[in-house]
Every structure is written in C-alpha cells, then in structure tokens.
Amino acid sequence: xxxxxxxxxxxxxxxxxxxxxxxxxxxxxxxxxxxxxxxxxxxxxxxxxxxxxxxxxxxxxxxxxxxxxxxxxxxxxxxxxxxxxxxxxxxxxxxxxxxxxxxxxxxxxxxxxxxxxxxxxxxxxxxxxxxxxxxxxxxxxxxxxxxxxxxxxxxxxxxxxxxxxxxxxxxxxxxxxxxxxxxxxxxxxxxxxxxxxxxxxxxxxxxxxxxxxxxxxxxxxxxxxxxxxxxxxxxxxxxxxxxxxxxxxxxxxxxxxxxxxxxxxxxxxxxxxxxxxxxxxxxxxxxxxxxxxxxxxxxxxxxxxxxxxxxxxxxxxxxxxxxxxxxxxxxxxxxxxxxxxxxxxxxxxxxxxxxxxxxxxxxxxxxxxxxxxxxxxxxxxxxxxxxxxxxxxxxxxxxxxxxxxxxxxxxxxx
Length: 414
Ligand SMILES: [Zn+2]
Fold this sequence. Notes:
The protein is of the alpha+beta class. Helix content is about 30%, strand content about 20%. The chain is built from ten helices and 17 strands. The structure holds zinc ion (ZN).
C-alpha cells in the first residue's frame, strides 16, 4: 500500500470534515434535524462525484449515496459502507479547532485552550498503543467529531484507493452517508430495498480491530396499580393504597437482573420512572438482553411480582410491554459470513480482532432489521461525545485498509 500517500489523504479529509458544524438536534421537527448537516452532505456528494463514482446523489432527506461499479467477471454480493455526518448533542461542534500531535510520545495530552482539559494516560490506557502515531485532538472547547467523521474519511479514502488501484478486483460497492444518527433517526427514512445492497458495514466503531454485531433487544414496560382512595379519616377496612402496592413491588425486583449488577452479556430489568397517588400508581421499565428469550423471562418476572404485590394489598394491576429495538444479531446470525469475512480481512492485515457486545442500540441494527445485515467496524475514535475526543491517523488508516481488504475477500470468495 502507498502508506504515506493515503495516510496524508485521510488526514487532509478528516481535518477538513471536522471543521463543518454538523451537530444534530433532538428537538427538531425537520429531517435532517439541522440544515447545517446538509452543507457537508452536499459537499460529500460532490467529492464522490469528482472521485468518479456513478449514480451519485443526495435525496430529499439528505441521504448521500453512490456506487463504485464492479470490475470483476464474478457475481459478487453488493457491499455498502456507511457513516454518519452529524455530531453528538452533548458538546458543541461549532468552531472545531483540531490539533495534530505528530509522533506522539506517550505522555498526558494538555488541550491548548482549556487548562482543565488533560487527556491523561492513566484514565485513557488506549493511548499506550498509540506511541509514535499522529493523534488529532480538540483544543479543549468543543468535541472533535471523529464520531463519525473518521468513518466518512475512512470510507471516502478506501473508495479513492480502490479507484486508483484497478488491479484490486471487487464487486459493486455502495456508499451511504447519513444525517441524524446521534438523535436516533439516522436511517429512519432510508429505503434499503431501493438502495439495493446485500451486506453492509457501518464505519463508526472505536478501538482498532473492533467488530460489533450484537446489541441489546430492547423493550419498555409499564406497570399500573389501581387502589381505592377514601377520606383517610374514614378509611378503615376500605382504603386500598396503590402507592403501597407499587412500593412493595419495587422491593421484590431481583437484584441479579439490575443494571448496577450486570455487565458483558447479562441483561437487566431497570425501573426508570414512577408516578404515584393513592388511587393509581405506575412505574415504567426498560428491559434489555442480548437474547430475545431472556426478555420473555423478564416479562414473566414482572407479571408474577406485580400480581404478588397487588394481591398483598387487594389492589388491581395492569402490565403493558412495547418493543423498542432489536439486536442485529437476530438477523446477522443467519448471515454470519458478513462478520467472518471482516474478521478474515483483519487477520490478513495482522490486526487483532476484538468482538464485544454493544450494551445499547446502533444505526446498524436498524439497517439490519430493514434487510441490510450491517455490523459495525472500528475507525479508532476515542472519548466520543466529549471535549477529550481524540483519534489516531494510523488507526483510521488501518480502518481504511480493512475496508479495502473486505472488498477483496468478498470478491475472492464469490
Ligand atoms: Zn457515531
């Protein structure tokens, strides 16, 4: 690989993209949620066009798509590489002033415009892997937006690489850049069927070598207790207090299934809000697990304990469940080669593969359930959503090599 040349291209692209303010807005009623996201999306469309991709377009929702046509006789499944342009809502993305630390020496990193912002090695042990790398940080006053402009720079540079290396055989490769991932609606209006890709990868992960394809199955639950409110001076043998039934119910919840006692592959039953009076008292929950069957166990636990609490006080009760999102593994386990080929690509490049479950949701899960199996790959982004966000250019370069190698693996195996 022409390492130096493509490392430079990644650097130039990344430093350019992070200067666009593309923060999304959870309270907006438009789509995309902010106009400013469209500025970068339009420029990305033009850049794809200039690179020479076909069918380059931006639609009414801001989805930028393009195709790099197959250069092989073989019938290879159509791959897609996906990144989001918006940045997180917690910290401002306006006037990002990226700082490049070349040949990092392994010490704590003081951010230049806020004396209190120091990226300490002690609390960021990943930095130990980055000695000798070129690291981009903020100036301490904004986020960086490596989440997910690193993904955009990686995908753009990988496509650039494939175009300039026609000796690398590949099938049809599609690109998708989308807005509004950070507000949970990144692929809400995206027409997966029309897009026409068979398998996809979101480039939005963290540490080098990471591939994620399991996330929580998520349900909400609401339990209501109904009592009988009566003037407390005349309530003897008549009043039924819904607050007491609800309070007792909460004490019955099993500790071993709570978020404060679980990690890794263990799920939980988590009470989040309560609303109570004598007549009616309700509580809402989130239920999370990597296995759908476990969610059914949690529903059973809630039903059983609610009945026990209601019976104890002579109250009535009602339980409702609603699905929030599903694990992408429910689909990906039937298309496991999308994961295996990515692992093989990293193996070939000498990158140690790290798989870990996502204890939350992700855009790739929505795409997966819309019919595009879509695990998440590393770009190197660290400390995302904060002022101490940083990324190594060499990690982004390895992410780009992984994308190129994945295209090769799919062609060879077809
Ligand atoms: Zn992201």
